[in-house]
Structure formats: structure tokens, C-alpha cells
Amino acid sequence: MTVKFRRTCSILLAALLSVAMVGCSKADTSTTNTSSVKLNDPAWKEAMTTPFGAYPETVTYSVGQMATKFTLLAGSPYAKDNATNNVWTRYFKDKLNVQNTSKFEANDGKDYNQKVSMAIVSGEIPDIMVVPDYSTLQQLYENDLIADLTDAYKNSTSDRIKEIYDSYGGRVLDSAKFDGKLMALPTTEISHGPGILWLRKDWMDKLGLQEPKTMDDIEHIIKEFVEKDPGGNGAGKTVGLVVDNENVAGISGGQYTFNNIFALYGAFPKQWMDDGKGNAVYGSIQPEMKPALTKLSDMYKKGLIDRQFAVRTGDDRKALLTSGKSGSFIDNWWGSWIVADSLKLNKDAKWVSYVAPQSEDGSVTMFTGNPSSSYLVVRKGFEHPELAAKIVSLQYDYQRYEEKDEATLKEFSDYSALNVSGSPIVINIDYYDAFYRNVGIMKHALETGDPSELKSNNDISAYHSYKSYLDSVKSGKAPDPNAWAGYTASITTASLVEKSNIKEVNPVFFGSTASMALKWPTLSKMELEMYLKIITGDQTPDDFDKFVDTWKKTGGDLITKEVNEALAAK
């Protein structure tokens, strides 16, 4: 949902506030009385104050549902499944004795966000609903439309879910608290880890190149790739570092970005950072940006960066790598999936990951992403607000870690194989360090051939894929590209990150402000043009100072003021 659309909905909501509030007030009195009576019944009390206790009678709840392509189940035993009768809803019914109905249904993204906004405007929100951002959550709280989940979290959230939230050091739960009350169950965004440098190791071996650590090492390797053509592309046809032209830097988990290089200079573009004095400042206009841009401009002049990067499409970038036209890009720990097709086109292609460039002390600095991009809320007046906590605990704890029934697990596995979700609650809750948390246990399982110590059902499924990769390597057969990609990302690269010296810095603001609705598109376009022009040489690094001055005058100073006011109010 765009900032402009959210702003429009805020205005409409204010106009209809009195109507919405009357409806909520009526619901609160009756449901409070009913809930109090049920708490005197041991069976109801057990269900209402524990994570996994089933209700004595079926509890029906309405949801704002993200559409699922159940047509993908055609020809399977689940061909007749739908939004209210599928593997997840049957699981919830069996374990908790609850049944969903759809208040509205929409495709994920803009369509769903618009449905959420219109439900808020009307004051007719579902009993349980995922909202897409903090601004919407704040709007719901300020207009008294959602339930306080403090007690529900305390009593009906499992210990493992609480442990997962705690792994974020308070950043996630605090984002959903207003006046000391927990008003939502936040989704979690696991650490993306630092940017990862991916290189063609077979090219490095052919040229006798050592593994890179410093920026100088990286430049030397790419220079050798470009000038000596180890891939046999022909003189002058090997492309340098592959880079995104829309998100040059500043996106946590972004593909083909320069995040690591900017961080080497202490620059964090597009992030709202603490200036050390308790004030939020915009990273893209800080003085540390200039030397980083100077380095990138110099690399481009030397041909170490794809000379055509400013006009490449996403498909172009991937094709350069998989076809062997380029042997270098900076991505993430899951970057192996991008180049998996290389194995189909060239059996000798060997991509290897590196945590680089490193500072003089051997560390790599990264900025963390938004730890919670969406929130699960409960309508104020819904009789069972604890149900949200129970569903979250069942879906993201019990089913993942405790469920042992083979027939049940097969159903979930079948859905996954067909790329169908089906859950009424589409969020994710996982440990901050999820991508390398269980690497040691997985490696031991693969070494011993015994997966019994693996923590989750997802891990057991991954184990079989990784084992098939290792078996193919031992037998000398060509590995399945997907099995190679999974093992390389989740074992090889995750192990590398776990052992590396990673320093994290946390941005202080991820939301929006009133002036952003009108001014941010212009400022963002101006910023992107600055990157492209300075890196490609259309402007000099000294032109960065002019950009900063224009950015401030075009609304940047006003937005910075609003960001600091929002932080102070929070």
C-alpha cells in the first residue's frame, strides 16, 4: 500500500470515527461479561489461558484473508480444498476446535492492503487480521479498534514463541506496544546477514587467485576476471561486478547491492540512523557517503563494475551470471539460488561465497532490517482475543517443532510441494538468527546420517535435500542445482557467516511521516539519479554536496524533523 493511499484512508477514517466507535463500545460490554462467565468453567478456562488447549465448543472467527491459489491443488487429493477447508484450517479445527470465515479475501500486496484500509474506514474489521505496516497499526490503536493482547500474550503464547521474540532483543515486541500495552503480535523479519560476495571459484583457480578479504583483494580478482577472460568469453567481453540499477544500496537483503562497500566507509544509505546524540539522521546525506561514492566511481572507470549496469533488467543481471559472462556479484547468503542455473549450463561452474570486503580488524559491518514489517491484530470486542496467540503458537511452534503424526506432516509436505499455503494467518515468526541457528546440528546430522536431533519439521525436509546433494558429490554425479543451492546457502554460507566477525548497527526508524506522502517520491528519484550519475562518471563525487543541499531544501529537512518528532512521541 502506498504512503499516499494510507494518508487518504487516515482522512476518511477520521470522518467516520464516531460511527466506528459506537459499534466497538457495544461489543466490549457483552463480550467481557461472556468471557468472565466462561472463565469460571474449568474447560473454557483451560482453553482461554493456555497455548494449545482446545475449546469445549467450536469458536468461529472471521479473518481478512490473503488469497491462495487453490487451483494448484487440481489433480491432487486436495482438489476440493478452499479458504475455509484446507490442511491448515482442518489442523486448527482438530487441535483448537476453531473455524475461520472470510470477512474479505484479496491477493497479497496492494490488493490486500486496500481491503485492510477500507475495513478500517468502515469500522468493520475482521476478528483477526494482518495489517501491513506500523502506520496502520498506530491508526487502529488511536481509534480504539483493536484489543489489548498483553494478557493473551502472557497466558496463551507458547514458551518457544516468547523465546523467538526475545531473540530480537525487544525490538519486535516493543514496536507493537502503545502506552505499555501490547496491541498486536508482530511478524518477525529474520536477519538477512551481511552482504555476501559471490565469485566464480573455478575462474579463481584457473588464474591462481587467493581468497579475498579486503577491498583491494576484490578489485584485483575482478580485474583479473575482466582482463584475462578465464570464462572464454572473448577479449573485452567479460563483465565486472553485476549491480542493481534501482537499488544500488540501502535495502536490507537487497540483491546486487553495494551495501558492504558503503558500510566499509561507515555509510548507511537510505537508513535513518542515530547520530550518536540521540537524533535520527538520514544516512544517504552523511559525509561518509562521499568517499564510498568516490571508490565506486573509480571502480566503474576501471571496468570493475558492469559498464551497462544502469540499463540492465533483472533478467539481464541473472543471465550475465548464469551464462558465464560475469563471475562476481554481491548478494546475500541465499545468493546461490540466483546462480543455480549455472550448473545446468556449465558442469564446471563453481560459485563460492565470501564475507567481504572486511575492515582492517577483519570485521564486516551491516545495518539490520525492519524487524517487523506487519502485525496480527484482534478486533476490539472479539470474545476470544487469546485465539490469535493460540493460532500463532500452533502454527509457528507446535506444527514446526512438535508435530510427529506422519499423515499430518505428509499433508503439509504435499501442500508445500505444490507451493500452496492455505493458512488463514499469513505471517512468519522465526528466530532472528534462524538462517544459521541450527547449522551445527544439521551438519552433525548429515555427517552421521541421523536426523533425529533436528529441531523442526522444516529442518528434516531440508536434511533430505542436502543429503541428496552430498550423495551426488560422493558418487561423482552432477548434483541437482536446487539441492546444491540449498546446501550452499543454508550450510556452507550460513556456517561462514556464523564464524565471521559481524558488527550490526540498528536503524532507528522504519515508518512514514505526513510529508513523506508528497515529498518522498521526488527525493527518492533524486537520490537514485545521484548514485547513477556519480558512479558512471556523469557527475563527480563533489556533486554529492550539491545533492545534499538540494535534498534538504526539497523537503528532506522537514521530513527529518517529523521523523524525530515521531520517535520522541513513541
Ordered list of secondary-structure elements with their pairings:
Blueprint: H1 3-38, H2 42-48, E1 59-66, H3 87-96, E2 98-106, H4 110-122, E3 128-131, H5 134-142, H6 150-156, H7 159-166, H8 171-175, E4 177-178, E5 181-182, E6 185-186, E7 196-200, H9 201-207, H10 215-228, H11 259-264, E8 272-274, E9 280-282, H12 289-301, H13 314-322, E10 328-331, H14 342-345, E11 351-354, E12 363-367, E13 375-378, H15 386-402, H16 406-417, H17 434-437, H18 439-448, H19 457-475, H20 481-499, E14 501-505, H21 516-536, H22 543-569
Helix pairs in contact: 1-4, 6-15, 12-21, 18-20, 19-20, 21-22
Descriptive overview:
This is ABC transporter substrate-binding protein. Residues 1-27 form the signal peptide. Keywords: Signal. InterPro entries: Bact_solute-bd_prot1. By secondary structure, the chain is mainly α. It has three domains: 3-189 and 372-417, D-Maltodextrin-Binding Protein, domain 2 (3-Layer(aba) Sandwich); 196-367, 3-Layer(aba) Sandwich (D-Maltodextrin-Binding Protein, domain 2); 434-499, no CATH class. It has helices at residues 3-38, 42-48, 87-96, 110-122, 134-142, 150-156, 159-166, 171-175, 201-207, 215-228, 259-264, 289-301, 314-322, 342-345, 386-402, 406-417, 434-437, 439-448, 457-475, 481-499, 516-536, 543-569; strands at 59-66, 98-106, 128-131, 177-178, 181-182, 185-186, 196-200, 272-274, 280-282, 328-331, 351-354, 363-367, 375-378, 501-505. α1 crosses α4 and α21 (516-536) packs antiparallel against α22. The relative contact order is 0.14. The model is unreliable at 1-30 (pLDDT under 50).
